[in-house]
Amino acid sequence: MKALSAATHIPNAYRAGMYLGEQLRSIQPEVVFLFSSIDYSDNNDILMGLNDGLENPNCLIIGNSGDGFYETQGIGEYGASALALNSEGKVQWQLKIGHQVKEYPQQATRQALDQHQQASLIFMVSDFHADASLIEQVLEHEVTTPVVGGLAADDQQWHGCALYHNQQMLNDCIVALHAIGDINFSVHIENSIPPIGQAGQINASCSNRIDTIDQLDAMRFIEKQTGKPILRSDRGSISLTILDSQQQLKRLRSIKSDIGENANSVFMYGGIPQGQHIQVCIAQPEQLVEEVYRLAQQAQQQNNTPIAAIVVSCAGRKSLLGAQLNHEIQAIEKHFKRLPMIGFPSLGEIGPLKNKDGKNINLFHNMTYVLLLINS
Predict the structure, then answer these.
(1) Phi and psi torsions of 257, nearest 5°
(2) Could you give the CA distance from residue 23 to residue 300 in angstroms, rounded to a whole number?
(3) Are strands 209-213 and 195-206 parallel, antiparallel or unpaired?
(4) DSSP string of 214-275?
(5) Reduced to 3 states, what is the DSSP secondary structure of residue 342?
(6) Which secondary-structure segment (H or E) carries 293?
(7) What is the phi-psi region of residue 358: left when phi exceeds 0, alpha when psi lies from -120 to 50, beta otherwise?
(8) Which value, to the nearest 10 degrees, does the dihedral of the CA atoms of residues 109, 346, 128, 214 take?
(9) pLDDT at position 236, please?
(10) Which of 15, 188, 237, 370 lies deepest, with the highest CB count within 10 Å?
(11) Sign of the CA dihedral running 295, 300, 302, 307
């Protein structure tokens, strides 16, 4: 397996794509991952430029816009990064699309993950307007292949996003890359933010809105646990952890800046159904920095020869960390020198966790850092 990564801040979309393609074409890639800021989303010029720069019409392209992008050299607010892979024929790559994910998230997920049993690994990205909890239902209960990815973003404009599928720039869909064959990889996930206060049961909820917890308005319950009112500036930093005593899995749902009717309900980046037990979590910058270095160290101990990395990290972490966001790249660089790496801050992360029986369960997360290592 060969890998190369590159980044650009060139304003012109076509020239940015051309530059990336020229930097990556030496390994004759079979597939390229492309992550960008939303600035190139007016048309498919960046894809046309990338294709022309690669000089390889058979190369598959998958990716999306994010809240900026990551690359080995650091964090970018404007521009794009790309990662090229060449398995030298050991892996067969297939791109699939699930359409109308906003209206039919479960159906779109099934379309994109059709015949998932054939794949060893799937990388999946989705339009952020979809109800991620319904996507998760399919991932958790119907898909056994490890799935890694996230929800596209648009630099916190909350308007629209871009999904990349070969020469097409799309929205309202899911794009999934199926890796079929001999691909050696590992997935590492950190969402160790500790809970505070008392656990509560959700009494009333609809889609991504929570109305009451323990017979209290959801807003009042959370304020009772945190000891302070919820502000719009708390977006991302306050989360709910879903308590799953049966599977012993931890997943977080972050509170959006939207405030429900009469400021009594709260909206989440993914719904939590009635009857679930939750606990409030408040993220602190020092905790987020510590956990990425811990994750990188653990990954180094478990992996012998990674040749590439993809990071999907919550945009809420970016908002909270500010200038310290570079640690999410520096931690990997510290333990894996000169590793080709790209990634993006997302509006929701996808990755498998092991349940109490050691089985991988694909889940949707918030305030979570997902690291996919591709090994030689």
Answers:
(1) -70, -20
(2) 27
(3) antiparallel
(4) TTEEHHHHHHHHHTS---GGGTTTEEEEEEETTTTEEEEEEEEEEE-GGGTSEEESS---TT
(5) strand
(6) helix 285-302
(7) left
(8) 90
(9) 59
(10) 370
(11) positive
State the pairing for strand pair 195-206/147-151.
Answer: unpaired
User: What are the residue ranges spanned by the domains of the chain?
Assistant: 2-190+287-375, 195-282
Q: How would you class 135 by CB atoms within 10 Å of its CB: exposed for 0-12, middle for 13-18, buried for 19 or more?
A: buried
- pTM beyond 0.90, yes or no: yes
Cα gap 339→320, rounded to integer Å? 26
Question: How far apart are the C-alpha atoms of 108 and 170, rounded to whole Å?
Answer: 14
Regions in the chain scoring below 50 on pLDDT: 260-261
Whether the Cβ atoms of residue 60 and residue 97 lie closer than 8 Å to each other:
no
Those residues with Cβ within 8 angstroms of residue 360's Cβ, 6 or more apart along the chain or in another chain: 144, 146, 352, 353, 354
- How many whole angstroms separate alpha carbon 154 and alpha carbon 174? 16
**The predicted structure's pLDDT at residue 361:** 94
Q: In sequence order, what are the residues at sequence separation of 6 or more whose Cβ sits closer than 8 angstroms to the Cβ of residue 141?
A: none
How do beta strands 121-126 and 147-151 pair? parallel
- Determine the pLDDT at residue 260: 46
The CATH code of domain 195-282 reads 2.40.10
Q: Is 52 exposed, middle or buried (0-12, 13-18, 19+ CB in 10 A)?
A: middle
DSSP string for residues in 356-367: TTS-EEEEEESS
Looking at residue 231, what is its pLDDT? 66
Question: Which residue type, as a one-letter code, is found at position 270?
Answer: G
The structure tokens listed for 192 are 């160790």
With beta carbons less than 8 A apart as the criterion, state whether 367 and 346 touch.
no
The residue assigned the tokens 């990205």 is 125
Name the β-bridge partners of 181: 91
For the stretch 234-260, pLDDT in tens is 665 788 998 876 667 878 888 876 554
> 78: which residues sit within 8 A by CB, 6+ positions away?
9, 37, 39, 68
The CA distance from 292 to 297, in Å, is 9
- CB count within 10 Å of CB 251 equals 25
